[in-house]
Amino acid sequence: MRIADFGRISGPVALFGGPYSNLQATEAFLAETRGLAAICTGDVVAYGADAAATVALVREAGLPVVAGNCERQVARGAEDCGCGFETGSACDLLSRGWYPAALEACDETARAWMADLPDMGVFEQDGRRYAVIHGGATEISRFIWPSSPEGHFAEEIQAVEAVVGPVDGIVAGHCGIAFQRRVAGRHWINAGVIGLPPHDGRPETRYAVLDAGEVVVQRLSYDHTGALAAMERKGLTQGYELTLANGIWPSEDVLPEEIRRQPSAAKG
């Protein structure tokens, strides 16, 4: 496992995940958080229209990034996104549309950058020590949800601390839903993603700001109509383009029941 030291950060730090090839959202995030330190939990590329441009923008910004499963898979030239979806689920079927487009868009330079990303980062802020991962330390694409059993969080905390030593908190991503939990004295922070809304019926996406041990989840407004149009121009019309406007995932079956908008009948 490759570990990166992101150093000591003074003042607030913006935490974000999943730019998801959404150039407009990435531009808006960087403009809104200008002047703040920022750290990304991975999946710079995914569903959106502008994988290459989004990678270039994140690289140009010089932000610390930990590898998401999408980076690891694209770097290898793998045939699928490695997102951890169940075979035959809506996410699995829809990924056969967007993943090849993201793979094709990333040239050798982008893939080399992805291959060099760390699996985990550590940083200090206000006398507290944090680790940054994508999904889980035990598995990069592990889904940890707001409602996941406390034991799942404990397993990941133990796995993180086995590698980097004691931490006060863990910053994670992957599931696409911003939340925070306190488990065994550790602060688990999922920063959410900026590339898709969190299945709440609104087009705004999410990121988090960590300051003095406290986390505030922020809404990100951006040119979602432009991002949608870009996806349509690229033929990326499996359903995620509509999510940018209506805020509803076409892959609801990946979600826990309590997050689904129609608990008894997931959308396909």
Automatic annotation (TrEMBL):
Residues in the signal sequence: none
Pfam families, per the entry? Metallophos_2
Provide the species name: Silicimonas algicola
What is stated as this protein's family in its record?
Answer: Belongs to the metallophosphoesterase superfamily. YfcE family.
Q: Which domain of life is it from?
A: Bacteria
Q: Give the transmembrane region(s).
A: none
Task: Report domain Calcineurin-like phosphoesterase positions.
Answer: 22-212
Question: What protein is this chain from?
Answer: Calcineurin-like phosphoesterase family protein
Entry-linked InterPro entries: Calcineurin-like_PHP_lpxH (IPR024654), Metallo-depent_PP-like (IPR029052), Pesterase_MJ0912 (IPR011152)
